[in-house]
Amino acid sequence: MRKMRILTTLIILFGIFYAVYNFTPFVNRNSISINIKSPQEYFSKNKDIVVNIDDKNAGIQEVSVKIISMNTIITLYDKKIDDKFVKHFSINFKTNKVIPVGSATLVVSVKDYSKNNFLSGFEKIEKRAVIVDSTKPVVHLLSGISRIKITGSAVAVYYVKDDNLENVYLGVTHGNKVDKFKAFSASKIFGKKGVYLSFFTYPIDKTKNYSTDIYAIDKAGNITKAHIPVYYSSIRLKKSKIRISDRFITDKVLRIMENENIGQKSTLLDDFLYINNTERRADTNKIRQVCRNSVNNFLWKGRFMQLKNSKVEATFGDKRAYYYKGQLVDIKRHMGYDLASIKNAKVNAANNGIVVYEGYLGVYGNTMIIDHGFGIFSLYAHLQDFLVKKGAVVKRGQYIAITDTTGLAGGDHLHFDILIDGYYANPIEWWDKHWIKNNIQSVIDSSKVRLSLIEQ
After folding, report:
1. Cβ atoms within 10 Å, residue 182
2. d(CA 210, CA 72)
3. DSSP readout, 285-333?
4. CB-CB neighbours of 360 under 10 Å
5. 247 with 351, same domain?
6. What is the rounded CA–CA span in Å between residue 278 and residue 270?
7. CB contact at 8 A, 139 and 160
8. For the chain, what is the total number of helices (H) and then of strands (E)?
9. SS3 of 65, please?
10. How far is residue 376 from each of residues 21, 144, 178, measured CA to CA in Å?
């Protein structure tokens, strides 16, 4: 009898423990976590709602997203999940619903499949106060119609009005790509907040279907896309043949591979193709990364200087066909100017600026990059040595380096580039004082006049 009572007591205790463990919130507590990544503060129908949900102990059963505005509850998202084993769930959507402007509350509620909480399962609610804003930024183009040559440069000036502006940039669409150019605040030049300027370039593209637009995005996700009318013209690009020998690969390509710690491939031709393609792309990406940040000011003044007493050996956009043992093996565009002078010539800074890079860079060899402000950079490659260091402030004409044959150079010369936010542009315009005056200075002056008319 005593053994029976003990057994009964144990069964009852086990039953109580089982019930407490599985059906009450005392042991297994609510493990639902809700992370509202977007919106943060401002909200509109154009804003992405991004929420990550996790439940460590049970599967997620139901997710709903609502917004409470002016005592009205609007359901934005509601989903029942049949799979009881889903422990992580993410949502990312736009509402596309009209919501009253003003203060509102975003509410995310989640239920799970847990038998805890006295068989009703757990529920968690996360709330966020938001401001609903449906007004798009206002964009005024100040610089008017732009004119540009393919591979050339231009500047656009525009005024953006929005109290909650988050991002603004200029985009050049060509083919299936959009090249983004930074919008620099020009408030110091124009004496008014909200004025921006963007330098941009038109790349070589077979379709020649270019579109230039200003994109202004506020914190609520409202987007204004303002088109810039641009007249563009083509330029004649040269073609050249370059013969690659085993000796050239051994002397130049293998040295780059050694410097970059790249293992040799199956053949010398494979080595060349790897450096001329994969390494060249890596170098371009590195250059673009260096040119991501620029001083918000005009450091340069007047026309840019060519290498003193130099002769042009290759121009921008040259279509280079590479031949190895009589066979065409590769085709590339030359994205700068090759300037030859005497052996180990002193290299002068093209204009005032700040040195932002000096070091070895694959096919470019020893390379220096100077920031001239507002996204304009100059690059000097195939150098022997540097006469100034990174961070140095240089003046137009100041000697900064010495030419050589480092990188993929076949002879002693300077490879010179102009870059706009990391995109290659034809340097020839920047060497011309008349082009500078007519296409940059005059554009800025006329933009000041248009701004004064808007303010009236």
Report:
1. 22
2. 46
3. HHHHHHTT---SS----SPPPPPTT-EEEE-TT-EEEEEETTEEEEEEE
4. 14
5. yes
6. 11
7. yes
8. 8, 31
9. strand
10. 67, 21, 19
**What pTM was computed for the model?**
0.88
For 164-187, the DSSP string reads TEEEEEEEEEETTEEEEEE-EE-H
Task: Name the domain count of the chain.
Answer: 3
Interval 260-319: pLDDT, tens:
999 999 999 999 999 999 999 999 999 999 999 999 999 999 999 999 999 999 999 999
Nearest to 104 by CA among 31, 187, 44: 44
- What type of residue is 379? L
Q: Is residue 455 part of a domain?
A: no
Phi and psi for 451 in degrees, rounded to 5? -65, -40
CB-neighbour burial class of residue 57 (10 A; exposed 0-12, middle 13-18, buried 19+): middle
Question: Hunting for tokens 């005592």 — which residue is that?
Answer: 71
Backbone angles phi, psi at 291, to 5 degrees: -90, 10
Asked whether the bond before 39 is cis by omega within 30 degrees of 0, the reply is yes
Q: List, for residues 20-39, the tens digit of each pLDDT value.
A: 455 445 456 788 999 999 99
For residues 373 and 245, membership in a common domain is answered with yes
* Domain of 198, in residue numbers: 138-235
